[in-house]
């Protein structure tokens, strides 16, 4: 089992990282309980079994595509990225398709960033025909999940799992995570409290 875990980590590192950890570094973590030859043999077996098909569409890639289509501002896209990262912590959401989770995250981010009215004072439009066509999801299909996601994110922000919130609250990420708290504290005006905002 240890060999399988180390081999999976080795494959993932080579695939995802720009500078993957060397195998000898990974083996050192196991106190050399597994040999290099065992890992390489299992790596070959795993990749053959998978027919070298190790690529799958992630939530983030779908969200980036949808954000380009929606032409959202950078801070809104970063907020959607924060929501994508945070929803990975919720096991119940992992049953959903990555494309749907991406649509939910972008929808929630757009609602939180823009409020319920546009610059002219008219009701804001978030999920238009173009987004419906390109995502495959109607607004009614993502609105309820967006509300659940925001509630989950707010619970995570007050729990011991603070690393994502701190990361996305930094200036480097345009303090995007703070938009959720601002909407929770704001009693009205253009930016309404989170639950009211998403229900409309």
Write the layout of secondary structure elements.
Layout: H1 2-16, H2 23-29, H3 36-49, H4 59-70, H5 74-87, H6 98-114, H7 129-135, H8 139-157, H9 163-168, H10 178-185, H11 194-199
Helix pairs in contact: 1-3, 4-5, 4-6, 5-6, 6-8
Write up what this structure looks like:
The protein is 62% helix and 0% strand. It has 200 residues and is mainly α. It folds into two domains: 48 residues, Cyclin-like (Cyclin A, domain 1), CATH 1.10.472.10; 141 residues, Cyclin A, domain 1, CATH 1.10.472.10. Helix 1 packs across helix 3 and helix 6 packs across helix 8.
Mean pLDDT across the residues is 86
Class by helix and strand content?
Answer: mainly alpha
Number of helices: 11
Number of strands: 0
CATH topology of the largest domain: the name is Cyclin A, domain 1
Poorly predicted regions:
187-193
CATH architecture of the largest domain: Orthogonal Bundle
In short:
This protein has 11 helices and no strands. With 200 residues, the protein is mainly alpha-helical.
């Amino acid at each position: 089992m240890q060999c399988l875990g180390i081999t999976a980590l080795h494959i993932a590192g080579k695939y995802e990282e720009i500078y993957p950890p060397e195998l000898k570094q990974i083996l050192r973590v196991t106190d050399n309980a597994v040999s290099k030859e065992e890992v390489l043999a299992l790596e070959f077996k795993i990749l053959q079994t998978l027919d070298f098909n190790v690529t799958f569409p992630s939530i983030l890639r779908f969200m980036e595509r949808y954000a380009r289509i929606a032409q959202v501002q950078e801070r809104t896209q970063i907020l959607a990225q924060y929501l994508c990262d945070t929803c990975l912590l919720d096991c119940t959401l992992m049953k959903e398709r990555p494309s749907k989770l991406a649509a939910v995250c972008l929808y929630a981010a757009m609602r939180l960033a823009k409020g319920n009215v546009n610059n002219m004072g008219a009701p804001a439009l978030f999920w238009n025909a173009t987004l419906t066509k390109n995502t495959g999801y109607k607004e009614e299909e993502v609105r309820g999940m967006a509300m659940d996601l925001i509630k989950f994110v707010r619970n995570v922000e007050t729990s011991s799992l603070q690393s994502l919130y701190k990361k996305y609250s930094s200036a480097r990420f345009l303090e995007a995570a703070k938009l959720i708290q601002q909407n929770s504290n704001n009693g009205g005006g253009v930016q309404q409290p989170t639950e009211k905002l998403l229900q409309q």
